[in-house]
TrEMBL record:
InterPro entries for this protein: Ppnp, RmlC-like_jellyroll, RmlC_Cupin_sf
EC number of the protein: 2.4.2.1, 2.4.2.2
One annotated Gene Ontology cellular component of this protein: cytosol
Family, as annotated: Belongs to the nucleoside phosphorylase PpnP family.
Gene3D superfamilies: Jelly Rolls
Species: Chromatium okenii
Gene: ppnP
Name of this chain's protein: Pyrimidine/purine nucleoside phosphorylase
GO molecular function, one term: uridine phosphorylase activity
Keyword list, A-Z: Glycosyltransferase, Transferase
KW rRNA-binding (keyword) present: no
Catalytic activity annotation: guanosine + phosphate = alpha-D-ribose 1-phosphate + guanine; thymidine + phosphate = 2-deoxy-alpha-D-ribose 1-phosphate + thymine; a purine D-ribonucleoside + phosphate = a purine nucleobase + alpha-D-ribose 1-phosphate; uridine + phosphate = alpha-D-ribose 1-phosphate + uracil
Role description: Catalyzes the phosphorolysis of diverse nucleosides, yielding D-ribose 1-phosphate and the respective free bases. Can use uridine, adenosine, guanosine, cytidine, thymidine, inosine and xanthosine as substrates. Also catalyzes the reverse reactions.
Top EC group: transferase
Amino acid sequence: MSEFSNVNVTKRANLYFDGKVSSRTLSFPNGSTKTLGIMQPGDFEFTTQAPEKMEIMSGELDVLLPDSDQWQRICSGESFEVPAEARFSVRVLQLTDYCCSFLD
């Protein structure tokens, strides 16, 4: 899906890591939420509250998922999932455009 219809967009950006990661929140009529964002090159660690699916629209990163000791390369058009209440790390190799779906 390349676009979303009938959504509300929160105007204020979510900024992390001194602005190197930013996103905007989309709210859907069924109560679900997603964020659309950009990550600049760098190393970042995130925590989740709900399960998440990260779709990489463009760019490239390595991800270290919970309960894994091996980094996995994720490129444009690929995705990965992270469970709730988890910590994961990313090494962003080039400017990366992403969509994060909260699976709760």
